[in-house]
Amino acid sequence: MIDVVVMFFLLGLAAGLMRSDLKLPAALYESLAVFLLLAIGLKGGLGLAQQPILPLLPQLALVISLGAALTLFGFVVLKGVGRLNRADAASMAAHYGSVSVATYAVGVNWLSSRQIAFESQMVIFLAVMEIPAILVGIVLVRGMGKDTQWGKLAHETFLGKGVVLLLGGMAIGWAAGPEGLAPIKPLFFELFKGVLALFLLEMGLIVSRQLDEIKKRGAFILAFGVLMPLFSAALGLFCGLLLGLSLGGLTLLATLAASASYIAVPATMRLAVPEANPVISLAAVLGVTFPFNVVFGIPLYHRLASYFHGVF
């Protein structure tokens, strides 16, 4: 049976395709996103409060390398097979080398609803995997020269609201620990699924507005939007096995690798690579990859994780 939060996504998608006047206020959508980022950060911080930090450093190095490798692979495919120009290929590859908080949240909910545990450091992986893809994408277009505005780019990359909320929530959760978080637990932990459902309702409406662009762009965007996350998930599973993650951790790392950014990377690429056409990337990410991952991808990645976790 489809998860109830995914049903909200499908409701939004169906309403948008049928030209319904259903929509959420922009301020509410922003508020829901802030809530989810903080809640995810707090949960990760709570887990980190119960384990040492130093052993995580080699793991962080590996997932950073994973994000960079996915960006390079995506660039080669988009430029060589898709025949996109250099700016469009690099920008779109950065979207696919980065990660999606919403897809991660759906993955967490999918595992939690089935009582499948996962490592608390997954939220740190989520935060750090935003960054390497952006830097690699910029270097692919500009190279490293005098004209690169590294100060502005660093500000956009490291102090964007998504990273600040994730890392800030994680720091609060780590510092407060289980007892300190107890008074706010009913809000940020117990209401998580309901807020995620409302967020996905709006996401369904947003996705419905991308379908016309996909029709214009043809079969390549559709194929890339499905095949790239499958390849990325396989690489994520391989990295998860190297790290010795649990079944839930394997599923989440595969989900993270398969996801693609539609918030942090578009904002940064508009500043860094203004000649790239953002419509192409967003159509593929929001119109193809996000719904594929939410509806089909996460159960598939879990099935693959179950197989390889049993073998190795």
Automatic annotation (TrEMBL):
Keyword Thylakoid: no
Domain of life: Bacteria
Coiled coil, from the record: none
Keywords carried by this UniProt record: Membrane, Transmembrane, Transmembrane helix
Residue stretches spanning the membrane: 29-48, 60-78, 122-141, 153-175, 187-207, 219-243, 249-267, 279-302
Protein name stated in the entry: Sodium-dependent bicarbonate transport family permease
